[in-house]
Predict the 3D structure of the following.
Amino acid sequence: MKQLLSQKLSPQQIQFIKLLQIPTAELETRIKEELEVNPALEEGDENEEEQEHDDDDDSDEDFDDPDSEFDNDDNTLDEDFDERSEEQPEVELPKDDIAEAPDNQDLDLSDYLNDDEIAGYKMQGDGPGDAEDDREMPLADTGSTLIDSLFDQLGFADLNEKQLAIGRQLLGSIDGDGYIRRDLSAIANDLAFAQNIEATPPEIERVLHIIQAFDPAGIGARDLRECLLLQLERRPVDDTVEAAERILSECYDEFTKKHYPRIQQRLDLEDDELKEAIALILKLNPKPGGSGPTGLGKVQYIIPDFILSNDNGQFNLTLNSRNAPDLRVAPAYTEMFQAYDKASKKDRKMKEAVTFVKQKLDAARWFIDAIRQRQQTLLRTMDAIVRYQREFFLEGDESKLRPMILKDIAQEISMDISTVSRVANSKSVQTEFGIYPLKYFFSEGIATDSGEDASSREVKHILKEIIEGESKGKPLSDDKLEKMLNARGYNIARRTVAKYREQLNIPVARLRKEL
């Protein structure tokens, strides 16, 4: 016989965790979902509810728009955390000895009671799973996409019905970079099975060449070389363009490996001719899917969760006003419950109705409380980050970042590391120096000769500066970079230099060489 100690989270705790990790952009959607599901929850300040009770019942006064709080940029949350509004009074269920009155048919909530169970208080996506743990930064988007523009251009092309169907299939095969990487025979199979259209690869290729003439230049290419050649074909022909086309057509492998002497010898080019041709190729767009009016994806912008301002060294931290919605329990539901409790005739349907109302009231209170806890936790965590990285927020200098891990902030605010992780994940802050994801401020420490740890971001910043200042004709190897960093007092190994270089998307020395 074994004794096991286990811990289970309550529905309220699970709901708080789910709300904590979602960013501002998703919070608005989540609140709208809850308002639709729970009629006992409504937008509005709880103080308004108190005023409603104080006012005369016959008053026809208009109320403020509950959405106005969302549009008020000056709205701050400090008072929301210092002062807690009064809790709604707990309402007890009627006793089990309710006298049944079958003839009482005044109240019929069968439409509500036939819905799914409410007690679980689930939302879409509340089920278990690791997908919630690693969220991407939320991006709001607007506008039409490049794929819409390509379909418009296809409509103006002089094509028959079969070619139009092939063209639509090809446009649907374009990936985010603007390439068609699928084999033409596979596209022919898709046409045959999905649309009952028999088309040979040569027929598909003829339509593909028409699409490759669309804007932007390079769209619909099957590989990088074809993409670059398609762009060169749009340029006025001169010696530089011809040399660039020859390099891509005849010496593409040497070009990708930057074996310039071999290219020069094979194509019999002068130094200036080779240099101008390479410079022209490097100006071309390797990902035409990101060009055009709005790219294949929509125009996107980040919605910051925090706003940080600096008033002569005094920081003012606020939550984005969208994080602070005014929600309250609907007074009508509370009054409805009280009316049920005072009713003289109480049958089974009446009891079921009371149970339904209580579930909705409890769910509304849980949700409001979870939103408040979320606001408090977000501000406490971000305030600790600001205090820890004060020097950076004063100057915006990356070299001022201190080594900081999740544990440091968790100890500072006396919370679990997992809570800090949920706050830092997919959240961002707007500062005077730009918008930063919270993950940006967390970095490991590197030992220095002075005995103090330096942030890995500081080391990366210095590494990037060294590489930017190197001779492009003779770029520095990782070994030389290691020695230069060691000379500056950073105790770092060559493999760490290589790791940081790769994280900065900087290629090896051979591929950084320029003419």
